[in-house]
Amino acid sequence: MLPPLALLAVTAVWGVTFVQVKDAVAVYPLFAFLAVRFLIATATLAPLALPRVRSLGRRGVAAGVLLGTFVAAGYGLQTAGLELTTVSGTGFITGMYVVLTPVVAFLLFRDGVTRAGALGIALAFGGMAMLSGIDEGSTAGNLLVLGATVAWAFQIAVTGRFAPHVDALALTLVQMATALTLFAVAAVALGDLERPRGWTVWGALVVTGVFASALAYLVQTWAQRTMAAARVAVVYAMEPVFAGVFGYALAGDRLGALGWGGCALILLGIVVSEPEAAGDIRKAVSGRSVR
After folding, report:
1. Residue 177: closest CA among 205, 209, 222, 155
2. Which residue in 50, 93, 115, 256 is deepest, having the highest Cβ count within 10 Å?
3. 221 vs 141, higher pLDDT
């Protein structure tokens, strides 16, 4: 199926941007970075999405603002935590939403989980527990990232409630614009808003603004028109795997045998809970076409 594969591509983009963002916020103010990132995301979507916002109605716009608030909370807490902890550790803790999302969906909407989905969640969680064998950085940084994970669990669960009934482009634009507004206010209040300089900062801003924000959340909103929140969370469990791989390749992080075993267990969890997606991945790898 195409939606799980598209979400898998999103997790790969998020995994590589951990390294870019960590390098960028080391030389550029945190909230200024996030404000410009979501300015780029909003500008990317606006030409096509702005005329469609009216179709959302008041309820749809309110949902977009709520989702954008969760996005802002998630990125604010995660990026602050990333300054204090490792790339791989951040990826592992962020991946905890594979467990938190079904819980939030049940508490808010009484959404159930299939047996296959529950088994996939358990396997993915076990894999992430194994990934905890890597260096995870400071306690303060980890707690900030954990707060971000809770925010994203709510974002995924609530998106699943509204996505099937509204225009995906319009809803995503409202999310990005809300995050932009919140981060711009914070940056101005802290006196941190300044012009970005250098390829390290601009490269991270363009990649995260266009691909890891605008297009990633558009893909998520589109995919959740047909995928339950719990299933989305299981596919998103690949994010710590990609973070670990790119952390190894680009930032010098080392997973070790236990960490790589955790990656394999996460993949098994996806295969169990998303058998059709696993089949599509096999076809893609073998060079056969995927419908």
Report:
1. 209
2. 93
3. 221
* CA pair distance 131, 105, nearest whole angstrom: 25
Length of the chain: 291
- Model confidence at 289, pLDDT cuts 50, 70, 90, reads very low
Q: What b/e string do you get for 77-88 counting C-beta neighbours within 10 Å, with b at 16 or more?
A: bbbbbbbbbbbb
Q: What is the CA radius of gyration of the chain?
A: 18
CA dihedral 90, 223, 31, 144 (to 10 degrees): -30
Does the pLDDT value for residue 185 go beyond 90? yes
Burial of 118 (0-12, 13-18, 19+ CB in 10 A): middle
Residue owning tokens 């058998």:
275
Tokens found for residue 229: 């929140």
pLDDT tens-place string over residues 62-107 = 999 999 999 999 989 988 887 777 666 666 677 677 777 888 888 8
Amino acid occupying residue 67: L
**CA angle in degrees (0–180, nearest 5) for 14-139-158:** 45
Query: Which tokens hold the place of 216?
Result: 């990633």
Of residues 17 and 162, more confidence is placed in: 162
